[in-house]
């Protein structure tokens, strides 16, 4: 039984990588249907705050339920505990804090919400089940350069992501409407600083966990957020004649 589930977790990780590449192709063709890009003709749309909170919640609830309902054999080891905590910290912020800081926010199409909810359930199970039941690390893993570098990248990415979201929320003063060019922080160098932070965060997590499951999540995140960043970059250049020409899309000094 354990061998079968371990095989399943590896298969799900490879599938997540494949889905990431598929999403990249599809989103390049049809765009990311959310926020400013969502069609006003969508028949079913959900309030932004509620949609964000509920769609992200499985990545927090599924790991907690999985650990509560079955003996978490590997969580008696510090590396496993810390890695799972890293995952949960991100989604505690995304599900319990971020949605309630949204100012306004355009309604989310129902199909976008369902897809996000399904992914968070899928990935929440994948990461938490692997770390709580099967991941085996050496006694000195917490001092291994891969873990230390990965942890620093994870923390740096998390802070960049939170700060960039703060910048975006405060673009408009009370009573103002319309769009503005983001200024400050990494937005001075790239269009999608918030996405860059999240990519760095999950690449750090993947490095620290040194697992197929962690790298699958990082690959999926990069593929999906890169298409959104490219869409944002093009939109800003079309919307604002004075948009800084030197700004890259998502990776400072590269693209």
Automatic annotation (TrEMBL):
Catalysed reactions listed for this entry: androst-4-ene-3,17-dione + NADPH + H(+) = 5alpha-androstan-3,17-dione + NADP(+); a 3-oxo-5alpha-steroid + NADP(+) = a 3-oxo-Delta(4)-steroid + NADPH + H(+); 5alpha-pregnane-3,20-dione + NADP(+) = progesterone + NADPH + H(+); 17beta-hydroxy-5alpha-androstan-3-one + NADP(+) = testosterone + NADPH + H(+)
PROSITE patterns in the cross-refs: S5A_REDUCTASE
GO cellular component terms given for this protein: endoplasmic reticulum membrane
Main location: endoplasmic reticulum
Record's keyword annotation contains DNA-binding: no
Cellular localization per UniProt: Endoplasmic reticulum membrane; Microsome membrane
Pfam families noted in UniProt: Steroid_dh
Membrane-crossing segments per the record: 7-30, 82-102, 108-126, 147-164, 205-226
Gene Ontology molecular function terms on file: 3-oxo-5-alpha-steroid 4-dehydrogenase (NADP+) activity
Residue ranges of every copy of the 3-oxo-5-alpha-steroid 4-dehydrogenase C-terminal domain listed in the record: 107-255
EC nos: 1.3.1.22
InterPro entries hit by this protein: 3-oxo-5-alpha-steroid_4-DH, 3-oxo-5_a-steroid_4-DH_C, SRD5A/TECR
Top-level enzyme category: oxidoreductase
Keyword annotations of the record: Differentiation, Endoplasmic reticulum, Lipid metabolism, Membrane, Microsome, NADP, Oxidoreductase, Sexual differentiation, Transmembrane, Transmembrane helix
Highest taxon of source: Eukaryota
Membrane topology: Multi-pass membrane protein
GO biological-process terms attached to the record: androgen biosynthetic process; cell differentiation; sex differentiation
Role according to the record: Converts testosterone into 5-alpha-dihydrotestosterone and progesterone or corticosterone into their corresponding 5-alpha-3-oxosteroids. It plays a central role in sexual differentiation and androgen physiology.
Protein family: Belongs to the steroid 5-alpha reductase family.
Name of the protein this chain belongs to: 3-oxo-5alpha-steroid 4-dehydrogenase (NADP(+))
Source organism: Tursiops truncatus
UniProt gene name: SRD5A1
């Amino acid at each position: 039984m354990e061998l079968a589930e371990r095989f399943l977790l590896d298969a799900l990780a490879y599938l997540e990588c494949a889905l990431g590449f598929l999403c990249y192709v599809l989103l390049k063709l049809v765009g990311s249907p959310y926020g400013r890009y969502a069609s006003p003709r969508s028949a079913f749309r959900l309030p932004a705050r509620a949609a964000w909170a509920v769609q992200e919640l499985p990545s927090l609830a599924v790991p907690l339920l999985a650990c509560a309902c079955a003996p978490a054999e590997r969580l008696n080891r510090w590396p496993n505990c810390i890695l799972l905590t890293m995952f949960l910290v991100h989604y505690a912020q995304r599900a319990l804090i971020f949605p309630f800081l949204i100012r306004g926010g355009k309604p989310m199409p129902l199909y976008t919400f369902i897809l996000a909810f399904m992914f968070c359930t899928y990935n929440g199970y994948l990461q938490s089940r692997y770390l709580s039941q099967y991941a085996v690390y050496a006694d000195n893993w917490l001092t291994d350069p891969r873990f230390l570098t990965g942890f620093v990248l994870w923390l740096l990415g998390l802070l960049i992501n939170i700060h960039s979201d703060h910048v975006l929320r405060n673009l408009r003063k009370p009573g103002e409407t319309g769009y503005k060019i983001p200024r400050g922080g990494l937005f001075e160098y790239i269009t999608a600083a918030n996405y860059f932070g999240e990519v760095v965060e999950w690449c750090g997590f993947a490095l620290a966990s040194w697992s197929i499951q962690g790298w699958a999540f990082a690959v999926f995140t990069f593929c999906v957020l890169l298409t959104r960043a490219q869409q944002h970059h093009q939109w800003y250049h079309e919307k604002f004649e004075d948009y800084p020409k030197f700004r890259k899309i998502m990776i400072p000094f590269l693209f």
